[in-house]
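One example copied in:
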Amino acid sequence: MGDKASTEFLTAFMADMQEHVDDVLDIKQMTVAACVKNKPLVNKIFKECGDKEFDFIRRSGFYFGFLFGCLQMVIWFFYNGSWILPVFGFLVGWTTNWLALKVIFRPLEPKKFCCFTIHGIFLKRQMEVSETFARVNCVEILHTKAIWDAILTGPLSRNFFAMLRAHTIVFTENMVGGLKPVAIAAMGAQEFARMKEDIATKIAQKLPTIIDQSYEYMTEALDMENTIRQKMQDLSYSEFEGVLHPAFEEDEIILIFVGGVLGALVGVIQLFALFGTGSSNCGA
């Protein structure tokens, strides 16, 4: 009876946690916080999730650079001031990186343009990216110990312990079984209710000290990788972008600025390669 009730308790409790994982674990906050603190992890996630997107960024340097180069050539034809090359180099480098980063997540919703559909290249691969993102996250961030730490001490821990209390009370009643009327008659209804609360409180207090013994079972029971994958695939485009983008958003301006600086340096190299010091052959 005891073993059966215990098994039923764990099975029902883990099933409830999996179904209501958002109530006891802020997966988005946990993932974003870990990524912000661990930049190499962000690199790993986006290398595995965004191989096609990074390939686009590499190619975009040629596409956008060619278009801006044509514009620069026209301006240079009419006015060949020495500042044109480095200034345009900066603008090309800046704008190219800015555009490349923008089209990864913009537009959020698919937009028809003539016979083409334009959509953020990361977003239109939401199904595939979600699968890779979930796998990498479960290995690097959402491993079982980290999940339990977040559940027990995180901002939603109150919900977890309320869920545990509810299941513990049911477990206690199942253990008493048909003797419940006898127990109530002997103890009184209030004392019996207090006993269930005491058991729930003691289990909650004891849980952190024995939780490591359930890591393997929890990993299998929660099936976090599939849970995260499914939840990410079910997100709207805006919500999906909200999970992925914040992890590296603060570094975007650095990448854009570096692109501008490198472009300016290339412009200066072009200037000296074509005109030496640039003073004798260039206009002011």
